[in-house]
Amino acid sequence: MVRPAPFSTQTSGDLTADRRYAYGDGALGDGDFVAARDLFAQTLELAPGWPPAHLALAKACLALGDEAAAAEALRQACALDPEDRLGAGVLLAQISGEPVMPDAYVAGLFDEYAGRFDSHLVGALDYRAPEMLKAMLQHGDPLKGTMSEVLDLGCGTGLMARALAGTSMAFTGVDLSAGMLAVAQTTGLYRRLACAELLAFLMREPDARYDLVIAADVFCYVPDLAPVFVETRRVLRSGGRFAFSVQTHPGAGVIIGGDSRVHHAPRQIHDWAAAAELDVRQEIPASTRRDRGIPVPGALFELLKP
């Protein structure tokens, strides 16, 4: 099998095609979806192997309500971008109903976002997950030096460790984004940082190593949490706690929402916890951030390893 060649997200390599794409992007932004679709199609006549144009064509087709054409364009983008750096598979999942969240897409998204992550998330989106998770943990059992080993899943720039700083804890952090980890390193709060997919990292960790595993605004990028719950139970000591936030939806199972994030039904969380033999200690409906000024539905959970 021939592996598709690397591509630039900035240029197709054809100046005329790039101009068509730029015109199409402008039309898409202006709401002229018919013109955008036609211009992206013209781009692909000149540069048929350029994934960004296939993705853009899909977005125009979706805006026009043509899901079949959008799905075909997304499949083309995925074929040309097997790692799915652009996240075409995420949009395809919205059409098919089969939730996916490619690692390369998430890593690329946050590598680009790392430099302005804290100011944008906290300032513009009113992000409060770390403080809310800390408050939940302290509600029934105040955080003291009794929990010394903490695993911060999807640690990002270290906002969770900063919220818990001063609690005599030793932090290990794991994240897909090297850019985010570089910022986390500057906090001086982590004894160990690893650039890895969180489930793969968990599977390499020894049994009963941690007193607390925590994940703030991370599982909106992880559709299937069943193996994560199983591995988290394994790495927790007896009496250890597992605290996390999720975005929720009122239906069943797992979906990719219109915000291109994973939304978990609370019932699904309970089912996964029971299967992993974790007790649900606390469940608190809560919105940890805003999207275009509107609170995002969500929940905080604290699970316990008996």
Quick structural overview:
This protein folds into 2 domains: 15-97, Serine Threonine Protein Phosphatase 5, Tetratricopeptide repeat (Alpha Horseshoe); 112-304, Vaccinia Virus protein VP39 (Rossmann fold, 3-Layer(aba) Sandwich), CATH 3.40.50.150. Helix content is 45%, strand content 19%. It is built from 13 helices and 11 strands.
Sequence-ordered SSE layout with sheet pairings:
Blueprint: H1 15-30, H2 33-46, H3 51-63, H4 67-80, H5 88-96, H6 103-113, H7 117-124, H8 129-140, E1 149-153, H9 159-164, E2 170-175, H10 178-185, E3 190-195, H11 198-204, E4 210-215, H12 226-235, E5 236-247, E6 254-256, E7 262-264, H13 266-275, E8 279-285, E9 290-291, E10 294-295, E11 298-304
Parallel strand pairs: 1-2, 1-4, 2-3, 4-5
Antiparallel strand pairs: 5-11, 6-7, 8-11, 9-10
Helix pairs in contact: 1-2, 2-3, 3-4, 4-5, 11-12
